[in-house]
């Protein structure tokens, strides 16, 4: 980790704020979050209701993946978020075929007037579409408690057999690492006060870092390369394993990328990334064996990302910083975050609370001997 | 206000600025950094009792693909509207011109990054139009 001087610390705080604004623009709004919660709970009640074909199996529905991890991003070029849920059923996996289980869930959902029009059957899940907001993807699962708490079996991609999973265990593993530091605990005392209505969600640095890494992945693997993109669970696992408790988002991303780059360099062959929650070992990078080009692209991408991030950390000037962020996360998103990040100056000025620190001239909204007087920029 | 007092105030509040004073003309050169993400800028302020303060940026040179807002033709910064009395010889340069310079540089950087000038202001020949378009987010200033 860096040894940071006060100036560096102020830079990191300001850069973190910009990155947090990018994350905020990528994630679900609070209203969408509440709406998603309301809908999935309603789905849960419908599936377990007396008279439901699934009632005997005591279905329980819970979120998995990015939603409980706090790493949900809006997909590139699409308005709706993909939100994943598990529908866990008390049924032995030997007693039913994956395809039949999926059909049972679909059947029950189709009995509901509203869901009927929203259903789309996908390969491994049933999806309910809520236009402009999200898709709720519901994966049916057989409880497999014999292997341990939280262990489940879900249909594999081709629906011919079952695959082990443990969403709850994964979240517990991830949360333990992510909450090593939470932002509220590290709030630096020289951070500029934020306007109240804009206060950023206080989120653990690792969660923001993963949002940024996934966003960069989405942008780097577009079009014909989209099939080669590393999966979110693989990236999230790698990031969490490489995270060393950095308190700043920008330092967290820096450390994570350096960690992955050196892990790649010290590995013969391809990286092995084990699912940390599964009793039955699962190599999340298995797909790379079938597609070596995907691994090469991954290695290139991480290397480029890491070099650009290193450059970002030593860059000064909003335009130069925005230039790098635009390459990594897209121009419009960067500019929108940059505009938001300037709000404190506009608002401080409007309220007559903007000051200039003697000696350096730095702008501040904290009490200060020089208040910037009212002025009108004039001329062409 | 005597030039001597302007110099004393600058020395007090911005001791890193170098001062050159010849007859009735004083020049200050020093560095300011608008915020933690900004570049540091070496600026020059020239002032005499017979002339308004002139502020120019020495380093890094101002640059843009497009016309930079609120610059005079000699590339000095347009910091205030003379007819509004926002600056007079009775005011301290250290507490007006310098903070406005820093603010201008901040908005210049944000403009470079977003193509949006957020600092508001007026243009001499189309004052009313620019007030409507550029002034939206800081109405009331």
Write a compact overview of the structure shown.
Chain A has 380 residues and is α+β, with helices and mostly antiparallel strands.
**Largest protein interface, residues of each chain:** A-B, 44 and 59 residues
Oligomer: heterodimer
Q: Give the strand content of chain B.
A: 15-25%
Which regions of chain A have little confidence, pLDDT < 50, spanning 5+ residues?
184-199
> What is the terminal-to-terminal distance of chain B?
27 Å
If you had to describe this structure to a student in words, what would you say it looks like?
The complex is a heterodimer of chains A (380) and B (141). With 380 residues, chain A is of the alpha+beta class. Chain A contains 15 helices and 10 strands. In chain A, a hairpin with an 8-residue loop joins strand 5 (134-143) and strand 6. Chain B is of the alpha+beta class and 141 residues long. Chain B has helices spanning 3-13, 97-114, 127-134; strands at residues 18-22, 25-32, 41-48, 51-59. Chain B is globular, with a radius of gyration of 15 Å. The model of chain B is unreliable at 127-141 (pLDDT under 50). Chains A and B meet through helix 1, helix 13, helix 14, helix 15 and strand 8 of A and helix 2 of B.
């Amino acid at each position: 980790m860096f040894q940071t001087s006060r100036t560096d610390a102020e830079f990191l705080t300001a850069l973190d704020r910009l990155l947090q604004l990018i994350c905020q623009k990528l994630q679900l709004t609070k209203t969408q979050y509440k709406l998603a919660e309301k809908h999935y709970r309603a789905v849960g009640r419908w599936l377990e209701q007396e008279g439901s074909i699934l009632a005997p199996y005591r279905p329980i529905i819970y979120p998995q993946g990015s939603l409980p991890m706090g790493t949900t991003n809006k997909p590139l070029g699409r308005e709706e978020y993909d939100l994943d849920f598990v529908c866990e059923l008390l049924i032995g996996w030997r007693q039913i075929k994956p395809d039949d289980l999926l059909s049972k869930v679909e059947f029950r959902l189709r009995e509901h007037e509203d869901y009927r029009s929203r259903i789309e059957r996908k390969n491994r899940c049933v999806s309910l579409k809520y236009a402009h907001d999200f898709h709720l993807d519901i994966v049916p699962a057989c409880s497999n408690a014999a292997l341990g708490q939280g262990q489940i079996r879900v249909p594999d991609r081709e629906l011919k057999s079952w695959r082990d999973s443990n969403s709850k265990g994964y979240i517990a593993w991830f949360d333990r690492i992510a909450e090593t530091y939470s932002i509220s605990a590290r709030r630096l005392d020289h951070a500029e006060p934020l306007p109240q209505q804009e206060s950023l969600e206080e989120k653990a640095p690792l969660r923001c870092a993963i949002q940024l890494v996934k966003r960069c992945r989405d942008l780097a693997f577009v079009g014909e390369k989209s099939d080669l993109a590393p999966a979110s669970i693989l990236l999230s696992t790698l990031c969490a394993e490489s995270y060393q408790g950095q308190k700043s988002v920008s330092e967290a991303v820096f450390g994570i990328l350096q960690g992955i780059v050196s892990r790649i360099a010290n590995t013969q062959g391809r990286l092995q990334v084990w699912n940390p929650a599964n009793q039955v070992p699962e190599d999340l990078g298995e797909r790379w064996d079938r597609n070596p080009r995907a691994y090469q692209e991954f290695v290139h991408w991480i290397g480029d990302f890491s070099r650009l991030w290193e450059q970002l950390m030593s860059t000064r000037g909003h335009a130069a910083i925005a230039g790098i962020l635009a390459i990594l996360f897209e121009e419009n998103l960067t500019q929108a975050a940059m505009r938001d990040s300037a709000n404190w100056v506009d608002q401080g000025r409007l309220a007559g609370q903007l000051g200039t620190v003697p000696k350096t001239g730095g702008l501040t909204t904290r009490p200060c001997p020089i208040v910037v007087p009212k002025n009108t920029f004039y001329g062409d | 206000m005597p030039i001597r007092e302007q110099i004393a105030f600058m020395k007090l509040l911005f001791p890193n600025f170098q001062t050159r004073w010849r007859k009735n003309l004083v020049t200050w050169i020093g560095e300011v950094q608008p915020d933690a993400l900004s570049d540091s800028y070496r600026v020059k302020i020239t002032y005499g009792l017979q002339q308004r303060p002139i502020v120019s940026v020495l380093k890094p040179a101002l640059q843009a693909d497009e016309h930079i807002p609120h610059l005079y033709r000699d590339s000095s910064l347009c910091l205030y509207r003379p007819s509004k009395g926002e600056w007079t010889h009775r005011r301290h340069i250290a507490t007006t011109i310098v903070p406005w310079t820093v603010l201008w540089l901040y908005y210049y950087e944000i403009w470079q990054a977003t193509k949006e000038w957020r600092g508001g202001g007026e243009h001499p020949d189309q004052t009313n139009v620019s007030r409507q378009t550029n002034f939206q987010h800081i109405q009331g200033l």
